[in-house]
Specification:
The chain has 350 residues and is of the alpha/beta class. The protein has 14 helices and seven strands. α5 packs across α6. The chain binds zinc ion. Keywords: Signal.
Length: 350
């Protein structure tokens, strides 16, 4: 399995103007409405479409214009230009590591592990053979069908939407987030809210997969996180990712993106705070769906985000604004109504 965890470093306040400057000789740059894509020729369409699509989703679910965003392909290219991009009108910026680059990083990490385990002076041919053998165990090196390649491309694009969603959300509600002390996974919002904001940016099929799995599992033991816990817990991967950072063999960049693959990813997931870390994601998405449907407002997350950014908690927001939005007035009542709604949806499934 492959896990990309991104903790995004801070950027500063917004400014208004846009320019199409391209600061990277080896990348193509394209200005789209509200964004700058900087990517290799084979990726530029994907990146430009992701910016446009994610900004549209953001506006649907937050009811306000999305901040301007730059997405720069590859590791190590963005950091030196962050200040310049901000001046150019892109306060939000994301480094994007493609699937192929992740494969290269994985190969490099495996090569390092192999070399460490073999005696000094082992011939390259032996090392290469061992690397190939290890790679073949953890991924298909050939024989991907066209459908599989299309599916992988779609999920890569959806993962890019997700990561763009994190930076748009932070920039929109916490533009001065440097002062927050960085104790949260992605930003100053409660971790579940920050993560769910990004999940809402994913494409329909990725969201549908999470939704189906939530309906399959919410009634199982450990299949539901009590909402008072969900609203206050740290991201279940935060401690594990922090422990992993800087560890031998980890591949990373100064911007905080780390790539973890194979056995290392399994080990990291086992070190997470809850038995099934993906539950944190699918339950957040399910709760967002419940709130959108019950309130009849696809931008209900925007209304709550305004409250959280001005210092409300979920409890105080529900008490003050829940009834007007058509939602229960306490966390306890919200949980009961959400569980009812989940069981109705599970029963109504075809
Ligand atoms: Zn995320």
């Amino acid at each position: 399995m492959c896990l990309l965890a991104t903790l995004v470093a801070g950027a500063g306040a917004a400014s208004a103007q846009t320019s199409a400057q391209c600061y990277w000789d080896d990348l193509e740059c394209r200005t789209v409405e509200g964004g700058l894509a900087a990517a290799s020729p084979g990726q530029i369409d994907t990146v430009a479409d992701a910016i446009t699509g994610t900004r549209a989703r953001f506006e649907t679910h937050f009811g306000r214009p999305a901040p301007q965003v730059a997405v720069v392909e590859g590791t190590g290219r963005l950091d030196a230009q962050r200040g310049q991009l901000e001046t150019d009108g892109y306060p939000a910026a994301l480094p994007w590591i493609t699937r192929a680059q992740k494969e290269d990083l994985k190969t490099a990490a495996i090569r390092k592990q192999v070399v460490d385990q073999l005696p000094p002076g082992t011939p390259d041919a032996v090392i290469n053979g061992a690397v190939q053998q290890a790679l073949s165990k953890i991924s298909k090196v050939s024989g991907e069908s066209e459908d599989e390649i299309a599916a992988a491309k779609a999920s890569e694009a959806s993962a890019l939407n997700h990561e763009i969603g994190h930076v748009l959300f932070m920039e929109a509600y916490w533009p001065d987030r440097e002062s927050s002390g960085g104790k949260h996974y992605g930003g100053p919002a409660p971790d579940w809210f920050d993560e769910t904001a990004a999940l809402l940016m994913e494409d329909d099929s990725m969201q549908q997969g999470r939704w189906d799995r939530l309906l399959d599992t919410y009634a199982e033991p450990d299949g539901f996180i009590p909402l008072d816990q969900l609203f206050s817990m740290q991201h279940p991967l935060l401690a594990a990712v922090q422990a992993y950072r800087g560890k031998d063999g980890a591949t990373g960049s100064q911007t905080g993106a780390i790539v973890i693959t194979g056995e290392e990813a399994d080990r990291l997931l086992r070190a997470a705070d809850i038995p099934d870390p993906e539950l944190f994601y699918r339950q957040g998405l399910g709760l967002a769906r419940y709130m959108m449907e019950t309130s009849g407002n696809p931008a209900i997350f925007g209304a709550i985000a305004e409250g959280l950014a001005s210092g409300e908690t979920m409890e105080s927001w529900l008490a003050a604004d829940g009834a007007a939005a058509g939602l229960p007035g306490t966390v306890e009542a919200l949980e009961a109504a959400f569980l009812d709604w989940l069981s109705t949806n599970a029963a109504d499934r075809p």
